[in-house]
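[agent] plan:
  1. take the single chain provided in the ticket
  2. run structure prediction with default settings
  3. attach structure tokens to the ticket
  4. add a short note for the reviewer (M.T.)
[agent] executing step 1
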Amino acid sequence: MRAKARFRVLFLVMIALANVPTQAATITVDASQIGPAMSSDQLGTNLFAIVPDSGDTAFLPLMSSAGIGLIRWPGGSTSDYYHWKTNTYGPCVAGHLSNSATAFDTWMQKIAQPLHAHVAITVNYGTNPDCSGRADPNEAAAWVNYANNIKQYGIKYWTVGNEQYFPLAGLLSGYDPDPVDPIAYGNAVATQFYPLMKAQDPTIKVGIDMAIGTNSTFTATNDDWDKTVLAHATYDFVEMHYYPDPQGCCDDSMLLTYWSDQISKSFALARSFLIANGHADTPIFLGEFDRSGGGHVGHETVSIVNALFNGIVAAEATKAGVKMATTWIGIDNCFPDTYSNDTAYGWQHFGSYGLFAAGGTGFQLSCPDQGVSKGTPFPKARAYQVLSRYVLAGENVISATSTNSAIRAYAATNRGGYALLLVNIDGTNTQSPSIEIDNGTASKFNATTLIYGKAEYDKSKNGIWAGPVSSSLGTVGASFSVSLPPWSLTLVTLSVSSPLSVSLIGNPGGAVTSSPSGINCGSTCSANFSPGAQVTLTASPATSWGFFGWNGGGCGDLASTCMVTINGSTSVTATFAPLDGLAAKTSGPPPPPVDTGPGTAQPPPLISPIPQ
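[agent] step 2 finished; step 3 output follows
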């Protein structure tokens, strides 16, 4: 009897709890709280000189689609063996690398310059050409001279060495020029690299390696490298890397919570170190980041979870005012997934750090041999395609808060309106938060969404690497709601529309249409477009009528098309006149009309009336 009673009470409690309404999540954006400015340098990638496709121009449109504005080169640990002038690696590097797949000039002229991307170079600190000691600082200085004085490439960022807080990676056994030594590194930069490189081009920025954020270095108590180096070196920026997952897998939940939270703490700790050394305003460069920086490269690297993590890190970098950020890596091979304990979500049997799949066949790491075509955008690239609409040069981060721990919220100004970057880190449930825009510039917005999530990624199970999905929310007010699918990155763009009005002189002697669509005048002579939109107007005269030019909106010639850039309310007049009869005897455009409103303006007579 007691058991039945207890069961009945428990059953009633469960019913009561099931009927308790859950509190609706709210995302609050305060447009008056202006944060750091954004730049194209915050959306970058590394390119690895030893990967042949890093110099393949077929990847240019792909890089452009991901919004890549900064490229770090020649890539990772091999930078400390690379000799730029001969395009070779020293004999002490494991794997017996000889020539880089892409020479410096070739890469600059085929990739960096056509992409209009800024470049960050890592100069060799690790080894000299015969592997008898550390690199010669004069080699780095000669590179600056060649790049910026002789070739006029204008490369701004130059970091001395790669991850010098670790022993040199990839060395042949029996060689080590000297142990990890922060004092030696700091002094070498201050007395040799920095002055020699700046003597060649005083406008460059010279950076040094910071250990904070790499593997287990996340607190001040276990970070002796940074305190020492910052006190001894001379530098214009610091470069940190972020690879938080010590095993490279497999805890997706921790990656999207604890390790995603840790990046902002690492930025704050790095800033505190700089302040303590009198460098409060020194820029931070996030030179490499991903869930793991080495060891096992399994399917977790090409999963939706890693895409969300990369999106979070990039957004946190903009929020913290980190000036430059380059993910690891732009183009990569596909590594067979051999780790039996990898429980991370995903459908693949391989891994890759790349935004895009490298080509090539007939070798163990070939992507095409594993059914993935050259240039395939992996989920991380899809996240960058969304980010490219959020991280816009000249715009500013603004305040955004979320009452739901499953939603990470970021916001920025966006071409006269606003953009929200919302990450649903719940892999099971759709979140439907309400959005509140406080202190905005308008009360109504044209709202669109761009979503990349688990649903798109899951198509890769069948070999379809789907991209983000866009949709329109129509006109919304300062309060509205949005649906965020499970494990998704959603960009909500709020644009403030401006009217474009067209008036016809000589109506109905022709029509004017627009691309994008909206205007078809005679009938529809006004439409709203987003600020900054480029609208092409096309004038089409009727039979026996001619087009005699534009007036207003920056249009002023007789061409039948005109491109108008929307910067507030804009009015354009198109003039048509008959080609037969007396009008045919006139030359040039008719006299200016009296404009009486959209679609209604009429011209004065083309010539004086002939007495009857």
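[agent] step 4 note for reviewer: Residues 498-585 form a domain with the Immunoglobulin-like fold (CATH 2.60.40).
[agent] ticket updated
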